Structure formats: structure tokens, C-alpha cells
Request: fold
Amino acid sequence: MRALIIRVFILSIFCFTTQPSLYAEVKELRYDPWISGPITIGSALTFGTFVFFEDDIASKKCRWCDRRADGSSTLNGFDSSIQKKLVWTNKKSAGHLSHLSGFVILPLFSAGSFWLISGHESRWKNFWIDLGIVAEAAVTASLVGQIVQFAVARERPDSHDLSKAQSAALPASKNTSFYSGHTTFAFAVATSTATVATLRNYPVAPYLWAGGMALAGTTAYFRIAANRHYMTDVLAGAVMGSAIGFSMPYFLHRKDKPFSWTFAPTSDGWMTMAQWKW
Reply:
């Protein structure tokens, strides 16, 4: 399994270089730094504040505990069976690898891809716009995920494996399992990167979809292997990260609006027509 993960890393980083043409007729995107900039910076600062004061903000008691009153487990069979199969003996190594894949390799994969594409014909303005759109989606998805973690207060698996008394001694961040922040960020970066590339009409877009999703999935795997999240946590993170990562570039920054409405008078009143452009 670990050898496979290494191969996925290598494939994800270099897969787009096999494309003979990095540049085609590029489409413009709508991007106003005076609007998107404050959104990105504000979301990032709020998220950073939440992370810094996580133990003060998070619930001291779990609301989703997967325990009975006597401390015995009521964890569902789906999460339980996957935990037994995927958790590593060396959980710290898996945790470090999740940080590396989600917060270092994947952002570098995204930025590096845009750098290569934009540098091919010296369109550096596109590079900064593309990067700004990805950053906007990633920090927004992370902020939403952090709020959900505080609200749901699910006990993390490494805390759940301890006795009730042992778990009580851990900091409040033990109750921020649902849903996975690493996975949310990773899928938001991967999806927004690929969506921007698709909207731009970059020929490497399919490679960015494949490589980005592979890296994001690897990050999700490492979070389970580190015993920091359950499968349901990473699945929810993948769905939310992907949804925000796709919808923000597609609906906010697409040059031609995907929706159009037409109102026309008729003999009986008014007629409304809606058009969707994919």
C-alpha cells in the first residue's frame, strides 16, 4: 500500500508534463481583486484565528461521541471496519504524510501547474488570477469545515480508542473529527485547480483532474491511517471540499454566466425562460 501511495505521488506531480501542448486558446475569467481579495484574506484570518484558539472554542464535551454512558463504543460498523484495516501502527508517520501531501505537495502541484502553463506564453496575469481563485475556494472551504467541526463536536478516533477517563484529559480539539479539515482543503484545492483549468480551456485540464484528485484522495487516506478521522469524516470532507472547489470558480468567476433568464410578454401574461450553459 505504501509503495502504491509513493507511485501516486510521482504520477500526480508529473502526469501533466506528458501533454505535448500546454497552451491553447485561453478563455478569460472574471476576477476582481478588490472583491475576491478581501474575501480570501478575511476567510484566511478567521480560519487562522479558529485554529489558534481551537482548544478554547471547541466543545469540551463531544456531542457526537459514539459511546454509551458507561464508555463502551457504539461506533457504526462502516467506520469501525475501515479503521481496523487502514490505521497504521506508526500513526505519527501517517499524520506527517497527511500534512505533507495536503498542505505542501498538492498546493505546489497546483501552483506549479499554473506557473508552467502561464509561463509558456508569458501570461503571468493569468497565473496570479488562477492562483487567487484557488486560494479563495480553499480558504472558504476550510473555514466552513472548521465551523462545522465546532458545531458537530464529534470525538476523534484516537480519543475514542481511549477510556472515558483518559479521553477526558485530552484538549478540546479531540472533539473536531467531523468533517476532516485536511481532506476538505485538499479536495478544494484539487477541484478548484482543475475547474479553473477547464474554464480556461487549458489542454492539461484532464491531467490536473486526475493528478489533483489522486493527491487529495491520498491525503484522505493518510488521515484515516493516522487515526485522526473516520471514513465518514473524510468522505464528507471530500464532498464539501469538491463542492466548494468547483462552485466558486464556476459560478463566481466564469466569464460567460452559466445561467440566463428571459422574461417575455404573452397573451396570458408573462413567460419566463431559463437557460443553462455547461
In short: The radius of gyration is 21 Å. The CA atoms of residues 46 and 52 lie 10 Å apart. Confidence is low (pLDDT under 50) at residues 16-22. The first strand starts at residue 259 and ends at 266.
